[in-house]
Design brief:
Elements: H1 22-28, H2 32-46, E1 51-57, H3 63-68, E2 74-80, H4 84-94, E3 101-103, H5 107-113, E4 118-124, H6 134-143, E5 145-156, H7 160-172, H8 187-195, E6 199-210, H9 217-228, H10 237-249, E7 253-264
Parallel strand pairs: 1-2, 1-4, 2-3, 4-5
Antiparallel strand pairs: 5-7, 6-7
Helix pairs in contact: 1-9
This protein binds S-adenosylmethionine.
S-adenosylmethionine binds at residues 57-60, 64, 80-83, 86, 106-108, 124-128.
C-alpha cells in the first residue's frame, strides 16, 4: 500500500490489512487503556464486599470492565449496550459467566423499566451523551445505587490532546467549534457530583500517546482523524502540514490525562 508522506498533498487514510478501527489504531500507540484498566481494578478491589452487583452502562464489547475485574471478588454484572455490533461481541465475551447479563438497550430505555439497585454503576468513556444532559444523567445514574453504592465515572482530562483538538478543530470548523470551545473533560461531572450529598473523589491517570511519525504515517493520520473527527482529505494542505509539524515538534509525544470520578452515596 502507498504510504502517506508528510510533504505531499492528499494523504490517504485507508484501512490497513489489520482492519483496525481508528480507536484501536490510537490504542496501539497509547498506554491510556492499560493505565485505566489497572486503576479501575485497584478501585474495585478497594470496595467493601466480596460479592458485588455492577451495572456497566454503554459497555461496548464489555472487555474494558472484564479486563479490570479483580480475581478476589465475585462480580454479578449487568452489561448494557445498545449498538448491534459491539453487543454481538459482548455476548461472546461474556458467555462463560452465568451470573452476567447482557441487555441490548440504551440507558434511557433501560432506566424507564428498571427496578434494580446496584453496588456499583460504571459509566466509562460515554461520549455520546450531550454535556447539557449531564445533570439529569448523573441524577439517574446515582438513583440506581444501593445506599452504600458507588458511581464510577471515567472521562478524559485537560491535557495535550485537549490542546491539539482545540487548536485544530477551532481552526477547521470555527462555526461548530468557536474560539472559547473546550473539549469534553471530567471537570463538569466532578462539579455536579461534588454538589450532591455524599463523597466525591478524583483519581487522575497519566499516560502517553506516541505518534509513530517516523514509520507509520497512515497510523498518524488515523489518530488525527480520530481526535479531530474530520476526514484527512478534507483538511486543506497547509493545515495538514501544520498538524504534522505540530506532531514532529513534540517528537510525536503527547501527554494524556484521564479522570476517574468516584462518588459514594454516603459519606464514610
Ligand atoms: C466509547 S464506548 C465506551 C465503552 C466502554 N464503556 C469503555 O469504557 O471502554 C461508548 C459506548 O456507549 C454506547 N452508547 C451510546 N449511546 C448510548 C446510550 N444512550 N445508552 C447506553 N450506551 C450508549 C455506545 O454504543 C458505545 O459502545
Amino acid at each position: 500500500m502507498k504510504k502517506a508522506q508528510p510533504s505531499s498533498f492528499n494523504h490517504q487514510y485507508k484501512k490497513k490489512g489489520d482492519n483496525l478501527t481508528p480507536f484501536e489504531t490510537y490504542s496501539k500507540h497509547s498506554n491510556a487503556l492499560d493505565v485505566s484498566i489497572k486503576q479501575l481494578r485497584d478501585i474495585l478491589l478497594g470496595i467493601k464486599g466480596n460479592s458485588l452487583e455492577i451495572l456497566d452502562v454503554g459497555c461496548s464489547d464489555g472487555l474494558f470492565l472484564i479486563s479490570s475485574l479483580p480475581k478476589e471478588k465475585n462480580m454479578r454484572i449487568t452489561f448494557l449496550e445498545p449498538s448491534k455490533d459491539p453487543f454481538e461481541k459482548l455476548k461472546k465475551n461474556t458467555k462463560q459467566n452465568k451470573e452476567w447479563v447482557c441487555i441490548n438497550q440504551t440507558f434511557e430505555e433501560f432506566y424507564q423499566n428498571n427496578k434494580e439497585k446496584y453496588d456499583i454503576v460504571l459509566a466509562s468513556h460515554l461520549y455520546h451523551f450531550p454535556r447539557e444532559e449531564y445533570q439529569e444523567l448523573l441524577s439517574q445514574l446515582t438513583s440506581l445505587l444501593k445506599d452504600s453504592g458507588i458511581l464510577i465515572w471515567i472521562e478524559r482530562g485537560v491535557d495535550e490532546i485537549t490542546d491539539f483538538k482545540k487548536r485544530f478543530k477551532t481552526m477547521l470548523l470555527p462555526s461548530k467549534y468557536p474560539k472559547n470551545w473546550i473539549p469534553r473533560n471530567y471537570k463538569r461531572v466532578l462539579e455536579i457530583l461534588k454538589r450532591k450529598e455524599g463523597n466525591t473523589k478524583l483519581i487522575q491517570n497519566n499516560s502517553v500517546l506516541k505518534f509513530p511519525y517516523t514509520q507509520e504515517l497512515d497510523d498518524v493520520i488515523a489518530i488525527v482523524e480520530f481526535f479531530l473527527n474530520i476526514e484527512w482529505n478534507s483538511i486543506p494542505r497547509t493545515v495538514q502540514e501544520e498538524i504534522l509539524e505540530y506532531i514532529i515538534e513534540k517528537k510525536g509525544i503527547l501527554q494524556e490525562e484521564e479522570g476517574i470520578v468516584v462518588y459514594s452515596k454516603h459519606r464514610d
